[in-house]
Amino acid sequence: MLTAIDEKNKLVNLLESSPEELTGQYFCPACKTEVVLKNGNIKITHFAHKTLQNCESWTENESVQHLTLKKILYRWFKKSEKVEVEKYLPELKQTPDLLVNDKIAIEVQCSSLSLKRLKERTENYQTHGYSVIWLMGKKLWLSHQLTELQKNLMYFSENRGFYFWELDLERKKLRLKSLIHQDLRGNILHLTEEILFGHGELLTHLRQPFSAQAPLSLPVSADRGLFHFVRQQLFHRSTKWLEIQEKYYQQGKNLLTENFDKPYIAPPGLNLLSVSDDKISSANFTQITQNLVPYYQNFLENFKKNPRNKLYPPRFYAIIKEVNNETKAK
Ligand SMILES: [Zn+2]
């Protein structure tokens, strides 16, 4: 941790004070037990609990990555915003890594956490009127397939569809992965943009998915080995694929007569094979409060019926739908 309170109950921020000034006794702002100053060669100067037993706010030893990223983001925000590091919020009993402009909690997530805890922490912020932006350290970066935890750390905007933030300490970059889609094997596709640490205003970058912009697109192609893959999944009695096959049978169809020559790619939460057009329910993603049903419907109308070689953001499909409706009305 980078903050503590001194014997006079005054908050000490290590990012704003030099270590020589720090001579007294220090305490945790949350649990009030004693903390000690640590000057390491590897880790930046920080405080650590003498004992973590009674602390609801701090649970783990912080990594070098976590401490350093907090420091970098603090300085970056400070160029243009009001920012507080590890501001303890007593009504929530939570300490966001950074609190920006009194209302935006920034969480630098470098280690795994349980889905239950992620939901609790997110909902706790939301019900108290804070928004929370999760920025992911190396361990949680997107790889080939989405984990349950990653699904629940994704955000959504009309301009960018599903998106996800990553922090790359080694390369000193903030990364935005957007237009996240999945193919039938569960592999993900997305666009990647990188911003060098310290470049421009950080809050402006974080709001980028909501700012006006020309529609982006993501090129896709059909998966040549898909038919073979599906046959194999059925042969090996994969539960997921047997369920899809069962749905096909109920509709008097056979999965293996499906035309696999077109791209089968959809936004997370929408399976192009197992969904029938009139029965789309919004999937549950912890960070997403928007109703995704209109997007899923527009996507199905535009993509499944007329597969394209490009994927577009939700706004694009909404505009196409409007244009189609106007044409029909004429
Ligand atoms: Zn504590």
From TrEMBL:
Residues 24-56 form the Competence protein CoiA-like N-terminal domain. Pfam families: CoiA_N, CoiA_nuc. InterPro entries: CoiA-like_N, CoiA_nuc, Competence-induced_CoiA. Coiled coil: none annotated. Residues 62-180 form the Competence protein CoiA nuclease-like domain. This is Competence protein CoiA.
